[in-house]
UniProtKB/TrEMBL annotation:
Protein name: Fimbrial assembly protein
InterPro entries tied to this protein: ATPase_NBD, Extracell_DNA_Util/SecSys_Comp, GspL_cyto_dom, PilN
Domain of life: Bacteria
Protein species of origin: Luteibacter flocculans
Comp. bias intervals (Polar residues): 347-356
Keyword set, alphabetical order: Membrane, Transmembrane, Transmembrane helix
Lineage summary: Bacteria, Pseudomonadati, Pseudomonadota, Gammaproteobacteria, Lysobacterales
UniProt keyword annotation of Membrane present: yes
Bias-annotated ranges (Basic and acidic residues): 374-402
Length: 402
């Protein structure tokens, strides 16, 4: 488990160094400072957040607590006071800052800290503290087990393939009693630093074993909120997709319903077209076929009274055929000459004498030349009578015996 923690800590350190080495932190600080000028001062104080550093320093006869960057102390606790009193004074002074934002740095006098500038190969950057720890005996006049040290990378120009770092070390005999005394007062520093005027130099000599383990509840809350936001985004996307799918299904159902209606309309239109075509075909056939009544009327008028017909046919092409008996069948050609509706009369076959009636039996063909109904507009009742005329028609005199 320790190896895993060390590996994860190493990765975090690499990410922090990469972040600090990038231009983004400087840009974000500049951008935030520029934007903050547009916010009222009261709002800036109300919504101010981030780390708030306090510097605690042991003087000759007292402990002094001040805000980093300020000269005047926030509170002072004399050594002659009881531990409970000093602890209460410190806690009351630190209560002005949110525990999540509060950071405490134990400030050591510059004379108690050895600082060395180192030029190291770039390969040592990933594990800087461990690399410098192996070389403490050469870089300091102390043994490694007798000092607490810290190392940081400096933003200074260096030869190619190297970088500049700073080593800070202080004897354990100097730092450990101060840390123990602060622990008795209920103060746990986050860093051991050196004063740089009223600010902090940025060093950290605090032993890793005594570094406070902070639980950043705000970060956890932000992480939880980020997870909730991601889940809500996915939920919104899923809801949107579900709504789109439901709308698509409704649209498909409407399309299928309209398609069924369209198919029914198309079927009805097809039936109507077929019915219209059939009725049109019959109307055309009726219009193209010659009318029977004018032919019968003229045939009845021109045939002699002693002649009757046994059979009468008239097809759609106007071909006329009739069979009957007459005393003198040869005169029928002359009787039909000059007819308006009957043309080209001629006998078919031979004329034979009927043994029963003694008359001559004949069969004649002719061409009906009657005007078509669209040219000759008959009365409304005449087409019905014409339809009743079957191909086999007999003359009113067919059964008379002359």
């Amino acid at each position: 488990m320790t190896t895993l923690q060390d590996a994860s800590q190493l990765q975090l350190d690499r990410l922090r160094r990469a972040w600090r080495g990038s231009p983004l932190p400087g840009f974000l600080r500049w951008w935030s400072a520029e934007l903050s000028t547009f916010v009222p001062v009261r709002w800036r104080l109300a919504f101010a957040g981030g780390e708030r550093w306090y510097a605690v320093e042991r003087l000759t006869d007292r402990w002094q607590l001040r805000r980093a960057g300020e000269a005047s102390p926030v509170v002072e606790a004399a050594h002659t006071d009881a531990v409970e009193h000093r602890s209460g004074v410190m806690a009351h002074a630190l209560a002005e800052a949110d525990p999540a934002d509060r950071r405490i740095a134990l400030v050591l006098p510059a004379a108690q800290v050895l600082r060395r500038r180192l030029v190291l190969p770039v390969a040592a950057r990933d594990n800087l503290r461990q690399v410098v720890g192996f070389d403490l005996d050469r870089q300091t006049p102390f043994r490694a087990e007798d000092i607490h040290y810290g190392v940081r990378e400096l933003d200074e120009p260096a030869p190619e393939g190297r970088f500049v770092a700073e080593l800070a070390a202080t004897p354990r005999s100097t730092l450990d009693p101060l840390l123990d005394e602060l622990a008795a007062l209920g103060v746990q520093p986050d860093r051991v630093d050196v004063a740089d005027g009223h600010a902090l130099a940025g060093l950290d000599l605090l032993p890793p074993a005594r570094a406070p383990r902070r639980v950043d509840r705000r970060r956890r809350l932000n992480a939880a909120l980020a997870v909730v936001i991601v889940l809500l985004v996915f939920a919104a996307m899923a809801t949107w997709l579900h709504n789109r799918s439901a709308a698509l299904e409704d649209m498909r159902a409407s399309v299928e319903s309209l398609r069924a209606d369209a198919q029914r309309v198309s079927a009805l239109r097809q039936r109507l077209t077929e019915s219209a075509g059939a009725s049109g075909f019959l109307a055309r056939k009726k219009a193209e076929s010659p009318s029977v009544l004018p032919v019968l009327e003229e045939l009845t008028r021109r045939l002699p009274d002693d002649t009757w017909l046994e059979r009468f046919t008239l097809n759609g092409s106007g071909q006329l055929g009739f069979q009957g008996q007459s005393p003198q069948a040869a005169r029928l050609i002359d009787a039909l000459k000059g007819a308006k509706t009957i043309g080209d009369p001629s006998f078919q076959g031979t004329i034979q004498t009927d043994p029963t009636s003694g008359k001559e039996r004949f069969y004649m063909q002719a061409k009906a030349s009657v005007p078509k109904p669209e040219s000759v507009k008959p009365e409304p009742s005449k087409p019905d009578n014409a339809m009743k005329a079957e191909p086999k028609q007999e003359s009113p005199r067919a059964n008379e015996t002359r």
